[in-house]
Amino acid sequence: MSKKLGYSDLAGPFYTAMYRTRRFEEEVFEFYKRGLMPGLAHLYLGQEAVSVGACAVLREDDYIGSTHRGHGHLIARGADLNRMMAEILGKETGYSKGKGGSMHIMAMDKGILGANGIVGGEIPIAVGAAYSARYRKTAQVTLAFFGDASTNEGTFHEAVNIAAAWDLPIVFIIENNLYGISVDIRKVTKEHRLSKRAVGYGIPGLTIDGNDVFAVYEACEKAVDRARKGEGPTLIECTTYRWQGHHVGDPGDYRPAEEVAAWKADEPIGKLEKRGLLTEAEITCIKDAVEAEIRAACKFAEESPYPPETEAYTDVFVE
Ligand SMILES: Cc1ncc(C[n+]2csc(CCOP(=O)(O)OP(=O)(O)O)c2C)c(N)n1
Ligand SMILES: [Mg+2]
Q1: What distance in angstroms lies between residue 19's CA and the mean position of ligand 1's atoms?
Q2: pLDDT value, residue 319
Q3: Ligand 1 in contact with 289 (CB < 6 A)?
Q4: Which of 122, 188, 203, 231 could staple 226 via S-S, CB 3.0–4.6 A?
Q5: Are the CB atoms for 276 and 270 separated by under 8 Å?
Q6: Which domain holds residue 168?
């Protein structure tokens, strides 16, 4: 039997994955500012601990459902950075030949069911994947990531209800970053503790510090274990914060400066550093290695060709 990994074993891989996500997102922002990225991107800066802590407990063949803010989810699943960056720049070498871009980024080989531009749209898809795993008796688990504002969509209620009724192998992860675009969730929802909604579906619900990668990891480990054993879903609310506006073109000035500063002071990477599990030399070594990966991904994406015009007519219908 394999030994359970302790915090000191996990600190290096967690730091690497969070730093990789952060640097990737910073470079996406740079591409946008240089006018090299078609459309917009919703950056995951500040929320890195959620995807990294949660995906660390998954098996290779498990599934995840993602949102418009999906880059971090794919990176935490080990998606190829070159193909991701190329996709975001609309290049032929991207995961979907440049046709999906940032908001529809996906990696089928990593169990990603697709990022989704429809708020709450991915939750029923994730429940479908969980039902499929039950039907095929594979013991695969699905993680469904979504934002606070998504919990006010009808799809959320319908999907969580049926998953609970059928004890499906799924974990619902709310990334509560307090805002849906410019709308403060506290102004449009009476009960601010979103995990309490679990009571209405008869499933466990808990709120954790979503900037603490170990807190996310531990909560997800229990929930995934429970789901895999056939005991049904869990609703986990991760409190976190996005550093930028809603997307790269949004200054985000509807948020009080003190609020932004307070959350930035409690951000996931610094928080892990403060635990003192990694030496300065180890951190430098991780940063150098990640920097090389990121530079390579940017170069690959920039140098890749755009798809030929004829590609506009392929992959439109399934044969
Ligand atoms: C069904 C639907 N309604 C509205 C929108 C416009 N929209 C895009 S993102 C967003 C806010 C999403 O907020 P949240 O779920 O909290 O995720 P976050 O952006 O904070 O990660 C809205 C309203 C949409 N894309 N789909
Ligand atoms: Mg939100």
Answers
A1: 26
A2: 76
A3: no
A4: 231
A5: no
A6: 7-74+104-277
User: Which ligand 1 atom is nearest residue 176's CA?
Assistant: 16
Q: Measure the CA–CA gap between 141 and 314, rounded to whole angstroms.
A: 32
Whether 319 maps to a domain, the answer reads no
**pLDDT recorded at residue 4:** 74
Shortest-distance atom of ligand 1 to CA 185: 16
Domain harbouring 115, CATH code? 3.40.50.970
Are 53 and 215 in contact, with CB atoms under 8 Å apart? yes
Sort residue 246 into left (φ over 0), alpha (ψ -120 to 50) or beta.
alpha
Question: Per the structure, how many domains does the chain have?
Answer: 1
- Measure the CA–CA gap between 111 and 220, rounded to whole angstroms: 17
Q: Residue with the nearest Cα to atom 5 of ligand 1? A: 119
DSSP-derived secondary structure letter, 112: B
What CA–CA distance (Å, rounded) separates 136 from 152?
A: 31
Domain-located, residue 243: yes
199 exposure class (CB count in 10 Å sphere: 0-12, 13-18, 19+) = exposed
Residue 297 lies in a domain: no
CA of 303 from ligand 1 middle (Å) equals 33
Do the domain assignments include residue 96?
no
Residue 2: predicted pLDDT: 54
Please, is 83 exposed, middle or buried when counting C-beta atoms within 10 Å of its C-beta (0-12, 13-18, 19+)? buried
Given ligand 1 and candidates 45, 119, 151, which is best to mutate, with the most ligand atoms within 8 Å of its CB? Answer: 119
The pLDDT score that the predictor gives to residue 318 is: 80
Q: Of ligand 1's atoms, which has the minimum distance to the CA of residue 47?
A: 21
What are the residue ranges in the chain where pLDDT is below 70? 1-3
Is beta strand 179-180 parallel, antiparallel or unpaired with respect to 183-184?
antiparallel
Q: Is 119 in the pocket of ligand 1 (CB under 6 A)?
A: yes
Q: Strands of 234-239's sheet, edge to edge? A: 63-65, 142-147, 170-176, 234-239, 205-209
